[in-house]
Amino acid sequence: MKVIIPNNTKYNILAALNYANKKEVGGLLIGEIINYMTIEIINMTSQSKWLKSFFLRKWSRKEKKELNDILDQYGNNFSSINYCGEWHSHPSFSLEPSNRDIKSMWELCFDVKVSANFLILLIVKSAGKNDLQAKCYYFNKENYPIYKQVNIEFGGLI
Predict the structure, then answer these.
(1) Distance CA 43, CA 89 (A)
(2) Which domains does the chain have, with CATH numbers?
(3) I need a surface site. Which of 27, 32, 138, 155 has the fewest CB within 10 A?
(4) How far is 27 from 86, CA to CA, in rounded Å?
(5) 92 Cβ contact partners less than 8 Å away, ≥ 6 residues apart
């Protein structure tokens, strides 16, 4: 599996990281299924308040509205464009998911309100003002409790 992160999404993540400074930041990922093995991130959200620690485990009304507004922009074409996971930063530690990250992703995967067969978790950190380090993980209900790291391609069409 491969996740494509277009330059505009990369720059939006970098802006959020720079603004949050040394605090964790994160949000939702909206992706387009290119084919069975490829997802392109076409939009994202980021939290408006910078917290000491962050992972969007329970969606507030604001996050639900923001997600619905973004999906409306793409014509609610849920067969190819949809919520595909979460992103957050690990500014001071490795890009490996913590036990809490893993547990949260599985909870989201099996949440009937989320209604997802799979989700991705993108973990990032700043690598200078204009670059970032990232790792991406794939959580598929059919493979529970095994998740795997997937390839990231920066650049994309958007």
Answers:
(1) 17
(2) 2-155 (3.40.140.10)
(3) 155
(4) 6
(5) 22
Outline where the chain has alpha helix (H). 7-20, 61-73, 99-110
Distance CA 20, CA 89 (A): 10
C-alpha–C-alpha distance, residues 2 and 71, integer Å: 22
Count of H-run helices and E-run strands, the chain: 3, 7
Distance CA 137, CA 25 (A): 17
Percent of the chain with pLDDT strictly greater than 70: 81
- Write down the pLDDT at residue 19: 87
Please state the pTM of the whole predicted model.
Answer: 0.86
